[in-house]
Amino acid sequence: MTVTYSYRDPERLLLTEDRRAVVGCLNRSLDLCREVLPGPREVSFDIVVTNGENSKTFPVEGAGAGNEITIYLDAKQPIYRSPGQHHFITSAVAHEWHHLVRDCGFMNGKTLGHILVSEGLALAFEVQLLGRVPYAARAVPRKRLLLLEDQMKVLSRQRDTYSNIKVLTGGRGTHLHRWFGYSFAYALVNGWLEREAKTPVEAVDVKANKILRPWRNSSLSVVGSSSFIKNTCS
Fold first, then answer.
1. DSSP H helices in the chain
2. pTM score, two decimals?
3. What average pLDDT does this structure show over 117-141?
4. Which residues have C-beta within 8 Å of that of residue 47, sequence separation ≥ 6?
5. In angstroms, what CA-CA distances link 169 with 32, 137, 165, 166, 203?
6. 112 near 158, Cβ under 8 Å?
């Protein structure tokens, strides 16, 4: 397997030993992912370092398309210096690796529904790999997700990229809780995975409509199957 690395660190915030630590962590994370979910033979990491201002990170985030994974690191939260916090990097790599294997590409032109499925599957893969639910997947309580479920069914058909990102991230400038869309995506996909008795690895190639169709006709919900809803709400 061929892995290449490039850095965007104009302020030279990473020390030489920091770069070694980051590369070592990325390599270990990638090996862990590939053991469970084989994927592209060539991968490039684009490592973007910020100083915490206008940061995209908390404390690390990723983006993936084609054969490239972009990792955003916040130098004010130097988790790469603490082996006990390397799971944040592994989680980001796992998320983007699932996107790469699924061949999600960019969000542009896709419906919110398709994006929810891809993000939910990637979050579920993080859980399968690391045994912990990432913050964005549990930031919003299920009961609050359920309150907006009908509205989300309408929004799930929209293709406006800017609006879709706003739904995913929530928070400032929206009426949504921070990370609402990611929590919704995880709850929706996790409910389908449990119903179908599948893992995120087994579902890596599932068509989005296999999940969206039963959700839109109310046989699947962000709190589980329709029978589950009836039993818990009665």
1. 16-36, 87-102, 112-130, 135-138, 142-147, 149-155, 161-169, 180-196, 208-216, 226-233
2. 0.88
3. 93
4. 5, 6, 7, 8, 9, 22, 70, 71, 73
5. 28, 11, 6, 5, 24
6. yes
